[in-house]
Amino acid sequence: MSETNSAMQAARRPFKDHRARHFEFSTSEDGRVAIARLNRPDRKNPLTFESYAELRDLFRDLVYASDVRAVVLTGSGGNFCSGGDVFEIIEPLTRMATLDLLAFTRMTGDLVKAMRRCPQQIVAAVDGVCAGAGAILAMASDIRLATPEAKTAFLFTRVGLAGADMGACGILPRIIGQGRAAELLYTGRTMSAAEGAAWGFYNALHPQAELEREAVAFARSLADGPWFAHGITKTMMNQEWSMGLDEMIESEAQAQAICMTTGDFRRAFEAFAGKRKPAFEGN
Length: 283
Description:
It is a single chain. This protein is α/β, with parallel strands linked by helices. It is 49% helix and 13% strand. The strands form 2 sheets. A 6-stranded mixed sheet has the order 1-2-3-4-6-9, with helices on both faces. The protein has a 3-stranded mixed sheet with strand order 5-7-8. Strand 2 (33-38), helix 2 and strand 3 form a beta-alpha-beta unit. Helix 2 runs parallel beside helix 4 (98-117). It starts with a helix and ends in a 10-residue tail after the last helix.
Protein backbone atom coordinates (compact mmCIF):
# COMPACT_ATOMS: atom_id res chain seq x y z
CA MET A 1 0.00 0.00 0.00
CA SER A 2 1.42 3.41 -0.95
CA GLU A 3 2.04 6.16 1.60
CA THR A 4 -0.80 8.14 0.01
CA ASN A 5 -3.22 5.24 0.40
CA SER A 6 -2.08 4.71 3.99
CA ALA A 7 -2.72 8.38 4.76
CA MET A 8 -6.18 8.24 3.23
CA GLN A 9 -7.02 5.09 5.18
CA ALA A 10 -5.75 6.73 8.37
CA ALA A 11 -8.25 9.55 7.88
CA ARG A 12 -11.07 7.03 8.33
CA ARG A 13 -12.10 5.68 11.71
CA PRO A 14 -14.63 3.27 13.20
CA PHE A 15 -17.78 4.63 14.82
CA LYS A 16 -18.70 1.43 16.63
CA ASP A 17 -17.70 2.93 19.99
CA HIS A 18 -18.95 6.46 19.27
CA ARG A 19 -20.86 8.01 22.15
CA ALA A 20 -23.36 10.82 21.66
CA ARG A 21 -24.26 13.31 24.37
CA HIS A 22 -27.64 14.63 23.28
CA PHE A 23 -29.20 11.53 21.69
CA GLU A 24 -28.48 7.80 21.67
CA PHE A 25 -26.08 6.27 19.18
CA SER A 26 -25.36 2.58 18.75
CA THR A 27 -24.26 0.19 16.02
CA SER A 28 -24.68 -3.43 15.08
CA GLU A 29 -22.00 -5.86 16.23
CA ASP A 30 -20.06 -5.43 12.98
CA GLY A 31 -20.53 -1.65 13.00
CA ARG A 32 -22.20 -1.56 9.59
CA VAL A 33 -25.65 -0.38 10.71
CA ALA A 34 -25.95 2.54 13.13
CA ILE A 35 -29.02 3.73 15.03
CA ALA A 36 -29.33 7.40 16.00
CA ARG A 37 -32.22 7.69 18.44
CA LEU A 38 -33.69 10.95 19.71
CA ASN A 39 -34.30 10.21 23.37
CA ARG A 40 -36.43 12.73 25.20
CA PRO A 41 -39.68 10.73 25.20
CA ASP A 42 -41.34 12.80 27.93
CA ARG A 43 -41.36 15.77 25.50
CA LYS A 44 -41.87 13.74 22.30
CA ASN A 45 -38.17 13.99 21.44
CA PRO A 46 -37.75 17.70 20.66
CA LEU A 47 -34.51 19.11 19.31
CA THR A 48 -32.34 21.56 21.23
CA PHE A 49 -29.51 23.83 20.09
CA GLU A 50 -27.12 21.14 21.28
CA SER A 51 -28.80 18.16 19.63
CA TYR A 52 -29.11 20.06 16.33
CA ALA A 53 -25.38 20.72 16.38
CA GLU A 54 -24.41 17.23 17.47
CA LEU A 55 -26.56 15.60 14.79
CA ARG A 56 -24.99 17.92 12.20
CA ASP A 57 -21.51 16.97 13.38
CA LEU A 58 -22.35 13.26 13.43
CA PHE A 59 -23.51 13.19 9.81
CA ARG A 60 -20.57 15.35 8.75
CA ASP A 61 -18.13 12.98 10.46
CA LEU A 62 -19.74 9.83 9.04
CA VAL A 63 -18.05 10.74 5.76
CA TYR A 64 -14.90 9.39 7.44
CA ALA A 65 -16.46 6.24 8.95
CA SER A 66 -14.63 3.01 8.21
CA ASP A 67 -17.46 0.80 9.43
CA VAL A 68 -20.92 2.43 9.27
CA ARG A 69 -22.64 1.85 5.93
CA ALA A 70 -26.26 2.75 6.75
CA VAL A 71 -28.04 4.68 9.51
CA VAL A 72 -31.47 4.29 11.09
CA LEU A 73 -32.83 7.57 12.48
CA THR A 74 -35.66 7.20 14.97
CA GLY A 75 -37.17 8.39 18.24
CA SER A 76 -38.08 6.94 21.62
CA GLY A 77 -41.39 6.39 23.35
CA GLY A 78 -43.74 6.11 20.40
CA ASN A 79 -42.83 9.42 18.73
CA PHE A 80 -40.25 10.47 16.17
CA CYS A 81 -39.58 14.18 16.87
CA SER A 82 -41.79 17.11 17.83
CA GLY A 83 -39.45 19.69 16.30
CA GLY A 84 -37.57 22.46 18.07
CA ASP A 85 -38.11 22.48 21.82
CA VAL A 86 -40.63 25.23 22.62
CA PHE A 87 -38.83 26.47 25.72
CA GLU A 88 -35.22 25.66 24.85
CA ILE A 89 -35.30 26.92 21.23
CA ILE A 90 -38.51 28.72 20.24
CA GLU A 91 -38.73 31.06 23.22
CA PRO A 92 -35.04 32.10 23.08
CA LEU A 93 -35.37 32.75 19.32
CA THR A 94 -38.03 35.41 19.98
CA ARG A 95 -35.38 37.44 21.84
CA MET A 96 -32.42 37.06 19.46
CA ALA A 97 -30.96 39.68 17.14
CA THR A 98 -31.08 39.13 13.38
CA LEU A 99 -27.45 37.98 13.04
CA ASP A 100 -27.91 35.39 15.78
CA LEU A 101 -31.14 34.19 14.19
CA LEU A 102 -29.40 33.80 10.84
CA ALA A 103 -26.58 31.84 12.50
CA PHE A 104 -29.21 29.50 13.96
CA THR A 105 -31.15 28.96 10.74
CA ARG A 106 -27.91 28.34 8.84
CA MET A 107 -26.87 25.81 11.46
CA THR A 108 -30.16 23.91 11.13
CA GLY A 109 -29.77 23.96 7.35
CA ASP A 110 -26.26 22.58 7.76
CA LEU A 111 -27.80 19.51 9.41
CA VAL A 112 -29.82 18.80 6.26
CA LYS A 113 -26.72 19.37 4.10
CA ALA A 114 -24.76 16.93 6.25
CA MET A 115 -27.50 14.29 5.97
CA ARG A 116 -27.64 14.62 2.20
CA ARG A 117 -23.84 14.66 1.79
CA CYS A 118 -22.91 11.70 3.97
CA PRO A 119 -22.43 8.58 1.81
CA GLN A 120 -24.48 6.37 4.10
CA GLN A 121 -28.17 5.89 3.36
CA ILE A 122 -30.37 7.18 6.17
CA VAL A 123 -33.54 5.22 6.95
CA ALA A 124 -36.03 7.21 9.03
CA ALA A 125 -38.28 5.07 11.24
CA VAL A 126 -41.23 7.33 12.08
CA ASP A 127 -43.88 6.71 14.71
CA GLY A 128 -46.30 9.15 16.31
CA VAL A 129 -45.45 12.84 16.17
CA CYS A 130 -43.19 13.95 13.31
CA ALA A 131 -43.52 17.73 13.28
CA GLY A 132 -41.62 20.87 12.34
CA ALA A 133 -37.92 20.15 12.28
CA GLY A 134 -38.79 16.50 12.96
CA ALA A 135 -40.65 16.39 9.64
CA ILE A 136 -37.56 17.93 8.04
CA LEU A 137 -35.35 15.16 9.48
CA ALA A 138 -37.64 12.58 7.93
CA MET A 139 -37.74 14.50 4.65
CA ALA A 140 -33.93 14.73 4.50
CA SER A 141 -33.54 10.96 4.99
CA ASP A 142 -33.12 8.65 2.00
CA ILE A 143 -35.82 6.16 2.95
CA ARG A 144 -38.82 6.75 5.22
CA LEU A 145 -40.73 3.99 6.98
CA ALA A 146 -43.61 4.76 9.32
CA THR A 147 -46.40 3.34 11.42
CA PRO A 148 -50.08 3.94 10.65
CA GLU A 149 -50.07 6.21 13.72
CA ALA A 150 -47.45 8.60 12.30
CA LYS A 151 -48.59 12.22 12.09
CA THR A 152 -46.36 14.45 9.96
CA ALA A 153 -46.67 18.24 9.90
CA PHE A 154 -44.53 21.00 8.45
CA LEU A 155 -46.13 23.43 10.87
CA PHE A 156 -43.88 26.48 10.56
CA THR A 157 -46.77 28.72 9.49
CA ARG A 158 -48.50 27.91 12.78
CA VAL A 159 -45.90 30.07 14.55
CA GLY A 160 -45.88 32.82 11.92
CA LEU A 161 -42.90 31.55 9.95
CA ALA A 162 -42.48 30.67 6.29
CA GLY A 163 -42.77 27.09 5.14
CA ALA A 164 -39.34 27.65 3.59
CA ASP A 165 -37.29 26.02 6.32
CA MET A 166 -34.22 23.78 6.09
CA GLY A 167 -34.77 23.11 2.38
CA ALA A 168 -38.46 22.17 2.60
CA CYS A 169 -39.51 24.25 -0.42
CA GLY A 170 -36.91 22.53 -2.59
CA ILE A 171 -36.92 18.97 -1.29
CA LEU A 172 -40.55 18.26 -0.33
CA PRO A 173 -42.00 19.01 -3.81
CA ARG A 174 -39.51 16.56 -5.30
CA ILE A 175 -40.85 13.84 -3.02
CA ILE A 176 -44.62 14.38 -3.08
CA GLY A 177 -45.18 16.92 -5.88
CA GLN A 178 -45.56 20.69 -6.00
CA GLY A 179 -49.28 20.90 -5.27
CA ARG A 180 -49.27 18.58 -2.28
CA ALA A 181 -46.13 20.20 -0.87
CA ALA A 182 -47.68 23.65 -1.28
CA GLU A 183 -50.76 22.56 0.66
CA LEU A 184 -48.72 21.19 3.56
CA LEU A 185 -46.31 24.12 3.69
CA TYR A 186 -49.02 26.81 3.48
CA THR A 187 -51.46 25.27 5.92
CA GLY A 188 -49.19 23.44 8.32
CA ARG A 189 -51.81 20.71 8.53
CA THR A 190 -51.01 17.17 9.53
CA MET A 191 -50.33 14.62 6.80
CA SER A 192 -51.67 11.24 7.88
CA ALA A 193 -49.57 8.12 7.49
CA ALA A 194 -51.96 6.86 4.81
CA GLU A 195 -51.56 10.10 2.85
CA GLY A 196 -47.81 9.97 3.29
CA ALA A 197 -47.68 6.45 1.90
CA ALA A 198 -50.02 7.24 -0.99
CA TRP A 199 -48.06 10.37 -1.90
CA GLY A 200 -44.65 8.70 -1.78
CA PHE A 201 -43.36 10.43 1.33
CA TYR A 202 -43.32 7.11 3.16
CA ASN A 203 -41.91 4.09 1.38
CA ALA A 204 -43.91 1.68 3.54
CA LEU A 205 -46.04 1.48 6.68
CA HIS A 206 -45.43 -1.10 9.41
CA PRO A 207 -47.10 -1.87 12.75
CA GLN A 208 -45.49 -0.17 15.73
CA ALA A 209 -44.09 -3.43 17.06
CA GLU A 210 -42.35 -4.12 13.75
CA LEU A 211 -41.20 -0.65 12.66
CA GLU A 212 -37.69 -0.58 14.05
CA ARG A 213 -37.00 -4.17 13.06
CA GLU A 214 -38.10 -3.42 9.51
CA ALA A 215 -36.00 -0.23 9.41
CA VAL A 216 -32.90 -2.05 10.66
CA ALA A 217 -33.50 -4.87 8.17
CA PHE A 218 -33.77 -2.37 5.31
CA ALA A 219 -30.59 -0.60 6.48
CA ARG A 220 -28.84 -3.97 6.75
CA SER A 221 -29.81 -4.87 3.18
CA LEU A 222 -28.19 -1.65 2.01
CA ALA A 223 -25.12 -2.10 4.20
CA ASP A 224 -24.53 -5.64 2.95
CA GLY A 225 -25.16 -4.64 -0.66
CA PRO A 226 -22.91 -2.66 -3.03
CA TRP A 227 -22.61 0.14 -0.48
CA PHE A 228 -19.88 2.07 -2.32
CA ALA A 229 -22.12 2.14 -5.38
CA HIS A 230 -25.09 3.12 -3.19
CA GLY A 231 -23.08 6.14 -2.03
CA ILE A 232 -22.44 7.09 -5.65
CA THR A 233 -26.17 6.78 -6.37
CA LYS A 234 -26.95 9.11 -3.46
CA THR A 235 -24.41 11.64 -4.72
CA MET A 236 -25.86 11.54 -8.23
CA MET A 237 -29.43 11.96 -6.97
CA ASN A 238 -28.34 15.10 -5.14
CA GLN A 239 -26.19 16.57 -7.90
CA GLU A 240 -28.61 15.99 -10.74
CA TRP A 241 -31.30 18.28 -9.31
CA SER A 242 -29.66 21.24 -10.99
CA MET A 243 -28.37 19.57 -14.16
CA GLY A 244 -29.60 19.51 -17.73
CA LEU A 245 -29.97 16.20 -19.56
CA ASP A 246 -26.52 16.29 -21.15
CA GLU A 247 -24.86 16.95 -17.78
CA MET A 248 -26.91 14.18 -16.16
CA ILE A 249 -25.91 11.59 -18.74
CA GLU A 250 -22.23 12.56 -18.61
CA SER A 251 -22.13 12.60 -14.80
CA GLU A 252 -23.71 9.16 -14.63
CA ALA A 253 -21.30 7.86 -17.27
CA GLN A 254 -18.39 8.97 -15.10
CA ALA A 255 -19.99 7.64 -11.92
CA GLN A 256 -20.68 4.23 -13.44
CA ALA A 257 -17.16 4.00 -14.87
CA ILE A 258 -15.78 4.63 -11.37
CA CYS A 259 -17.95 1.82 -9.98
CA MET A 260 -16.69 -0.47 -12.74
CA THR A 261 -13.12 -0.04 -11.45
CA THR A 262 -14.01 -1.49 -8.04
CA GLY A 263 -13.46 -5.04 -6.90
CA ASP A 264 -17.16 -5.17 -6.06
CA PHE A 265 -18.03 -5.08 -9.76
CA ARG A 266 -15.63 -7.90 -10.59
CA ARG A 267 -16.63 -10.00 -7.57
CA ALA A 268 -20.34 -9.57 -8.37
CA PHE A 269 -19.78 -10.83 -11.91
CA GLU A 270 -17.76 -13.80 -10.68
CA ALA A 271 -20.44 -14.62 -8.10
CA PHE A 272 -23.15 -14.41 -10.76
CA ALA A 273 -21.17 -16.65 -13.10
CA GLY A 274 -20.55 -19.09 -10.28
CA LYS A 275 -24.15 -18.90 -9.02
CA ARG A 276 -22.99 -17.60 -5.63
CA LYS A 277 -24.13 -14.68 -3.50
CA PRO A 278 -21.74 -11.73 -4.02
CA ALA A 279 -19.81 -10.17 -1.14
CA PHE A 280 -19.45 -6.41 -1.39
CA GLU A 281 -16.39 -4.88 0.24
CA GLY A 282 -16.50 -1.33 -1.11
CA ASN A 283 -13.15 -1.47 -2.88
